[in-house]
Amino acid sequence: MTVGLFVPCYVNQLYPSAAIATLELLQQLNVDVVYPLKQTCCGQPMANSGFEHLTQKCNDLFIQNFAQFDYIVAPSASCVLHIKDHLHSPEQEETATGIRNKIYELVEFLTDVLKVEKLNARFPHKVGVHHSCHGLRGLYLAQMSELNAAPFSKPHQLLNLVQDLELVTLDRGDECCGFGGTFCIAEEAVSVKMGKDRVTDHLKNGAEYITSSDLSCLMHMEGILHRNKSNVKVVHIAEILNSRI
């Protein structure tokens, strides 16, 4: 298979190490990965702010960059969900539909497509997993606690393959961190309080690292950790799965 690597703009600008880890991890798993150099923002910030009608050029560029691949993989649940739900094209709707059906967030690609059962990774730390709202309720990377159904977690499934890693149990395993894209700007006080509550849960239960499939959530919590001068760090799940510590 050939995979097109989609690196969201904020990952590229602020957390390039997560993108590099994603590339290296896929290559270790014998996946042929191509990074289209002309890719840019998928248009999610505009759409979330009520300007989806202005995102067509973003859609057209995404189609141009990624239509030819067998799969498209990205280290960002929120951006993947945006493409799955909102990529359309008046002139190329069949192609857009094909892309919506073959784009995957990294964790779901590893578990659902590659069906990874073994990893050559080591991360000797206590780790708390943050399930982002987009990943949880949009991509179904884990079971929602409000449902009376059997629990599962694709991030936990992969992290359990990492040598010497200890997963901590949180009091509220799927609570929102409060980032919410432009919500953190429009409702700053509410967003910060939600973020503090989420961070406190990890600290209370002994996490040394907080990980997630969404760097936007991690960025929000990282700011709170830094302001509180905490030693707890955030790390994208790709960096753990690719770790050789």
From TrEMBL:
Stretches assigned to the Cysteine-rich domain: 3-84, 127-221
Signal sequence coordinates: none
Highest rank taxon of the organism: Bacteria
UniProt cross-references to InterPro entries, sorted A to Z: Cys_rich_dom
Matches recorded under PANTHER family: LACTATE UTILIZATION PROTEIN A, UNCHARACTERIZED PROTEIN YKGE
Protein name: (Fe-S)-binding protein
